[in-house]
Amino acid sequence: MKLMNRLNLVVLFVLIVSVGAFSQEMSKDDWQRQMTELTTKRDSLKNVLTAVQNDVANLKKQDDDKAAAVKKCSDELATLIGNQEAPFDALLTKIENLINDLSHLSNQDLWARRADVDTAQSWLDTAKKDPLSAVEKYAKRIQDDQSKLDALKNTIQTTMAAAQAGMTYTVGTWARDRDCLWNIAKKPKIYDNAFLWPKIWQGNRDQIKNPDLIYRGQKLQIPEKGELSKAERTALRSYWSKKKTMMQNP
Amino acid sequence: MKKPMAFSLVGFAMMAMVLTSCSSKPSDQELKQLDDLKAEVTSLQNQISAAESEKAALQKAIADKDAQLAQCMKDKDAVQQRLKAQ
User: Fold this and answer.
1) Chain A residues close to B51, C-beta within 8 Å
2) Fewer CB within 10 A of the end CB, N or C, for chain A?
3) Distance (Å) of CA A175 to CA A92, A151, A168
4) CA pair distance A178, A70, nearest whole angstrom
5) How far, in Å, are A138, A144, A189, A212, B2 from residue A229 at the CA level?
6) pLDDT tens-digit profile of B1-48?
7) Of A111, A7, A23, A154, which Cα lies nearest the Cα of B21?
8) How near does any CA of chain A get to the CA of B32, in Å?
9) At the top level of CATH, which class does the domain A166-248 belong to?
10) Nearest CB to B59: which of A4, A59, A80?
């Protein structure tokens, strides 16, 4: 009896282990099925790989051809430009350095160096005439430089206008200062433009009866610089009309 | 006495069935064959992925060169026009 029970226990144990092991192992049918599926998949992937590799080979050739075309064009452009590119680039760099320098100045200092702004503009105008200015990378640089120069000129104009607002001028003598309305308007600190003298005349009608007669010590208001207004142009026409009449009838 | 005996007999029979059915599994060589095939499939998939990446990179490089070429041609024409005008 005891022996029989022990035997049964052994049988049971072996049975449990065997069933457990069996359930984890693949059957021959499963193996065959997987082999078939994977073989089909492998063959399909090989075809796909071949096709992609052919595409890569074609694209490599295209890439080489494009590189050759780009080099050819670059060489032809370099031939057209000759050895002018380096000096042209140096000119633009010189302009940009000057503009950069002027951009860091205060408004007062910029006003004092306004001649340098004109110099930079002159150099830039020279650069614009060069055939290399047609090349896009240089055209962009020139455009940027012009924008910055325009901003500097604007600042100078604004500074001058602000200075002129409330500006006065004390008349000196003809003998020493050659002060007349024409010469006063011509002064850089005033209008830098003699033709704007009627502005000073009309802005000081209380002091100036005859624009040909101004006196030492007169403190003249200097109106803001700008084009002659309608009233100023009318006054100017009237002035020349009277002068003509006086000359015809001395 | 009979029940334990019957149980033993059933147990032996089942054990015999399990043991005999073990002979319809793939051999070690066949299992290795299957593993090799799986590895080959994985390798092919990786190669395809790498080739697709290379293809995409080449397509981009070609597009970049097309843009460079177009710009160069434009610059060349512009400079030629300027030289003619001088």
Assistant:
1) 49, 52-53, 56
2) C
3) 47, 40, 21
4) 67
5) 42, 35, 21, 20, 135
6) 566 676 666 666 666 555 545 458 999 999 999 999 999 999 999 999
7) A23
8) 11
9) alpha beta
10) A59
Q: CA-CA distance, A15 to B21, in Å (whole number)?
A: 13
ipTM exceeding 0.85? no
pLDDT tens, A193-247? 999 999 999 988 888 989 999 999 999 988 888 899 888 999 999 999 999 998 8
A25: region left, alpha or beta (phi > 0 left; psi from -120 to 50 alpha): beta
How far apart are the CA of B30 and the nearest CA of chain A, in angstroms?
8
Give, in order, the Cα–Cα distances in Å from A126 to each of A110, A121, A130, A132.
Answer: 23, 9, 7, 11
pLDDT at A127 over 90: yes
Cα distance from N-terminal residue to C-terminal residue, chain A: 166
Is-contact A179 A172, C-beta < 8 A? Answer: yes
Domain ranges, ordered by start, for chain A = 85-163, 166-248
Chain B closest CA to A50's CA: distance in Å?
9
Q: From CA A181, how far away is CA A146, in angstroms rounded? A: 35
Which of A3-7, A60-64, A143-147 bottoms out in mean pLDDT, i.e. has the lowest?
A: A3-7
Cβ neighbour number for residue A135 with a 10 Å cutoff? 24
What tokens were used for A229? Answer: 């207004």
